[in-house]
Every structure is written in C-alpha cells, then in structure tokens.
Design a protein that fits this description.
Layout lengths: L30 E13 L3 E13 L5 E11 L2 E14 L5 E15 L2 E17 L2 E12 L2 E4 L2 E9 L2 E9 L8 E10 L3 E11 L17 E13 L2 E12 L2 E13 L8
Antiparallel strand pairs: 1-2, 1-15, 2-3, 3-4, 4-5, 5-6, 6-7, 7-8, 7-9, 9-10, 10-11, 11-12, 12-13, 13-14, 14-15
C-alpha cells in the first residue's frame, strides 16, 4: 500500500483530510520530496485570506515515511504560524496490510490583537482488508482557542479500478465544544502523469476546524462543501490545483490551492 504521496490542502482542513492518501502517481520506492503549497481565499464580507507551507518528506522502500515542515496562514484579522510533522509506519507483509500514521500541527497566532495557541494532532491506521477495501480509524485532538475537543473518525476506501479510489468518512466530536458531525465523500483518479479528485462534505462543524479562526458564527453551523482538483507530472515535479467551496450557513469561502511536489532523488521501483 502506498501512503501519503501527496499533501492535503489546508483550504478544507477536515473535509480533505483523508490523508495519508492511498493513491500515488509515482512508482513505489525510496524518494525524498520537497512539497510546497500556497492558497488564497475569499470570504463573505469582502474579506479574504491565504497562506503557504513547505515540507520535506522522506519515503522509504517499505512504504513508511517521515516529514517535517512549516506553515503560515491568515484569515481576515487572524494569522498563525505552525510547525508540522507527518509520519507513517508500514507493518508486515501479511494478507491484511496495516499502516500506522501520525501528524501534528503545532504553533501560535494572533486574532484581533489577542494571542492564541494552535494544536491539531492526530494518529490512526489504515488496514487493507482486501485488494479493494481499506479501513481507516483515526483519533484527532484539536485545541484552537476557544475551540477544543476530540474528533475521532472512521473511513472506508473502495478500489473501484486499479487507478480509481472512492472514499467515505464520518467524524464526530466529543469531550469539548467542537460540536461536529461531519460526513465526507471523495473520488480520486491516479494516472501515470495525470490525477483528479472530486468530493464534498456535509454536517455541523466548528469554524476553527475549517481554519476559520476568529470567526463568530452560530453554535455548530452546518457545512456544505464541494471540492475539485487536478494534477499533472512534469519530470520530477508534480503540480496539483484544487478549488474548494464552503458554505457555513451563509458564511461562504472559496479557496484555490496549488501544491508542488519536487522529487529529489532517482526513483526506482521496489523489489
């Protein structure tokens, strides 16, 4: 199983967080990558936001990986800076293949002149039960003042064809004030040189989960979201462009994200 061969967009922090992704446009094998991401968004009320990130990712022959990076984001009168970590450990060669993963986004920021801490950490597993079915279990903890709590998630991925993957997930918060019950559906196509994705999400969700930090909205407003994207490879470089639209009970955001992955070493197929 190939894991986390593309970065997730930050425009939809949870709706697109089906990563580590189960698709890869490159042959399996050791690979050092530099991943750059930039985004810009428009918000209701003639406001906007944007940001960027840079990540170094090391992928091993076994399918395990480790990554470190930094990220900066701004939304209207809020901004924050984060350090990021990604890791995955592929286990065994049995019929049921399992990959454990972890990620962390830690830092601080400022909203309307008041400082806040930013903590978003998660751990989970992917277990490939059959060639066409993979199960995901995840526990996520979020503390982005004043929102905090746990957001566990369960997901199913269906291999519809060798290059086509459909995924469904459901996340529900507890132990805090996140008030989130979010369902997501997504389809990915991964060709040799071209990829695309399309999907959507629906359910009550805390604004901070979507990186709408500092936005004052009704408790647990309902999210309606749609996203679409396409990617293409050029030699050692993969480009991915994603458009995302969110409607949080009348508060609307449109985000465009460009991801660029540069493969640093010679790629070789695994034995």
């Amino acid at each position: 199983m190939s894991v986390h061969c593309a970065t997730r967009t930050r425009g939809a922090a949870i709706a697109l967080s089906l990563a580590p992704l189960l698709l890869c446009t490159r042959p399996a094998g050791a690979d050092d990558q530099l991943i750059f991401s930039g985004n810009g968004s428009t918000l209701t009320g003639d406001h906007g936001g944007g940001g960027g990130s840079a990540t170094w990712l090391r992928k091993f022959d076994t399918g395990s990986l480790i990554g470190l990076g930094a990220e900066y984001q701004t939304v209207y009168n809020s901004h924050w800076t984060l350090g990021t970590f990604n890791g995955a450990l592929a286990l065994g060669q049995s019929t049921v293949k399992t990959t454990l993963y972890a990620e962390a986004h830690l830092g601080a920021g400022d909203t309307a002149g008041e400082a806040f801490r930013y903590t978003n950490v998660a751990g989970g597993l992917f277990s490939t039960l059959t060639p066409w079915l993979t199960v995901q279990l995840e526990e996520r903890y979020i503390d982005i003042e004043p929102s905090h709590g746990h957001l566990p998630k369960v997901g199913l991925s269906f291999r519809l064809a060798p290059k086509l993957l459909a995924a469904l997930s459901y996340a529900q918060s507890f132990g805090g004030n996140l008030g989130t019950k979010l369902g997501t559906a997504r389809v990915d196509y991964s060709g040799t040189h071209f990829t695309w994705l399309v999907g959507g999400a629906y359910g009550p969700v805390a604004p901070s989960i979507l990186n709408l930090v500092g936005q004052v909205l009704a408790p647990s407003p309902t999210l309606k979201e749609g996203f679409i994207g396409a990617g293409k490879s050029f030699g050692r470089t993969d480009l991915q462009l994603i458009g995302d639209y969110q409607d949080l009970e009348g508060f609307k955001r449109t985000t465009i994200t460009l991801n660029c992955t540069v493969h640093l070493g010679a790629l070789r197929p695994s034995s």
